[in-house]
Amino acid sequence: xxxFKIHLIRxxxxxxxxAGMYIGNRTxxxxxxxxxxxxxxxxxxxxxxxxxxxxxxxxxxxxxxxxIIYPGFEAHVIDELTEYDFGEFEGKTAQQxxxxxxxxxxxxxxxxxxxxGETTQNFVKRQALALNMIVRDMMQQDVTSAGVIxxxxxxxxxxxxxxxPRKHSVEWTSDNGRGYSIMVTPSLYxxxxxxxxYDYI
Length: 201
Description:
By secondary structure, the chain is α/β, with parallel strands linked by helices. It has helices at about 15-20, 35-45, 60-70, 95, 100-105, 120-140, 150-160, 185-190, and strands at about 5-10, 55, 75, 145-150, 165, 180-185, 195-200.
């Protein structure tokens, strides 16, 4: 039976990453000049996996990263891959948010979502739907390897929800321009939604 290799790669750095801000799907930031430079350097030293098809979040920082990491590939946009909606936390640092009582409730899991933001449950469902769309498209296009340029938080939550080995979301962090390779075995995936992480990029 065919298996499918999908490489989940975090976009390059933005100025907000450097500043430690919560930036989700409300702010469409470009890569910073340093982020562009870093990705270019990484392409020289990291052997990014060979792919047959490329997917990306619609956010500018992901589309720019896709062009740098896999130049010449057409990037197919998956709207569901956007980052978490941080609501009122958007654009603020943890230091600024410590003054807001609901921030402590949110980080401790007592609050489902920031005011005006997205629940974690909805975010995970959205990322799982995106993965399913990618797997289905790969099957239809008869390709067995693909790259996915997405957001760090999305990678963390998706793998915590459906990957083996089982780990907490914080254990699936990745640096900018890095990520994880997963193996999708159709019988296992369709019966349980489980994928296997087999490498760190």
